[in-house]
Hints:
GO terms for molecular function: transmembrane transporter activity. This protein is mostly helical. It has a domain at 165-373: MetI-like (MetI-like fold). It has 15 helices and no strands. Helix 5 (108-126) packs antiparallel against helix 6 and helix 11 packs antiparallel against helix 12 (286-301). The chain is globular.
Amino acid sequence: MSDITQSNAPGQHYPPGEHPDLPPPPGTVGVVGWLRSNLFSSIPNTILTLLAVYFLVVSIPPILDWVYFEADFTGASRTDCTSAGACWALIDVRLKQYLFGLYPSDELWRVYVAGLVLALALLPVLFDKIPFRKILLVNTLLLPITGFYLLSGTGSGPDAWLTTVETPQWGGLLLTLVIGVTGIVASLPIGVALALGRRSNMPVVRAMCVTFIEFVRGVPLITILFMSSVMVPLFLPEGVNFDKLLRCLIGVSLFSAAYMAEVIRGGLQAIPKGQYEAAAAMGLSFWKMMYLIILPQALRIVIPGIVNTFIGLFKDTSLVLIIGLFDLLGIAKTVITDANWIGLSHESYAFVAVIYWVFCFGMSRYSIWLEAKLHTGHKR
C-alpha cells in the first residue's frame, strides 16, 4: 500500500484497476482485448457496432463510385460528363472563380504573396518555438497594411506600383479568408475589453458594455450586415461613403466580439477569488493583475469556447451574399447557374464543404493541441 501511495503524484487520480503499479485489467490487452472492451463490451454496444458496420458497408462503396471510380474529371461543359459519377470538370474549369472570384488573372501573384505573408504572420502567433520569431512578429504587426495594399493596390495611374483592384472583384475563398481572418483577429481583443468592461466596478462602463453585448447578441448577423450595407450610408454626410467590404468587416467583427465577450466572461468568473486577492496583496495594479495573472488563466480555460466562436464566425462568412459579396459559397451558387453547368449543385457544394471542413477541422485540432500544451492541472 505504501508503494502505491508514494507513486501517486499530487492531484493525480486513476480509474479503478488502471493504476500504473497494477497490471492492466484482464481481457484488455491486444487488438482483440481493445475490440472487446470498446466495441463489444455489452449487448447494446455490440448491436450498435454491428449497425454501424452495416451502414458503412452499404454507404461507402456507392460514395466512392460517385466521387472517384465513376467520375469525370475533365471537360468543357456538362455534356462532356458521360459517366454515372460526379462531374468534377466543373471544379477544373471554374477553380479560379472558387478561389479568387473575379480577381484579375494577371494580378493573382499579389494574392499568392499576400497568402505567404499571412502564413508567416500566423506562425509566431500560433507557435512560440520557431526561428526568427521576433522578425516574424514585426511582419504580424504590419499584416493589415501589407495585406491591404497587396490586395487592393496603390492606385490606378501609370505611376502606380500596384494597380487598384476594386473589392467587388474579390470573391471565393479569398473573400472568405479576408472576412474570417479579420473578424477573428479583431473580435478577440474587442471581446476581452467588453468582458472586462462588463465586470468593471464603473457603472457607466458596465452599462455600456452590457447594452452593446445584449443588443448585438439579440439580433441575427444578417440584420447587422444589412444595416451596415444599406442603412449606414443613409446616415452619413453627403459625399461620404465607406467601401461595402469595410462595412461588412466592421459588422462581422463587432458581432463576433459580443459573443467572444461572453465566452471570456465565463473564463473570468471561473478564476478563484483568491487569485484576485493574491494579485492585490502583491501590489499589482488592475491592468498588471489582468495581464499577468487573471487573463492568462481565464483564456486558457475557455480555449474550446474561443475556438468554437472562431469556427462559427468562419462559417457565418457565407451570409455576406445577402449584401452582394460573393464569398466561397456565393461563388458556388453562382457557378451552377451557368447554362453549361446547370444541375451540378452536388459537385459544387461538395467541393465547398470539403474546403470549409479542412479549415474548421484544422482550427479544432489546433485548439486541442494548445489545450494539451497549456495544461497545468485544470484538466480532470
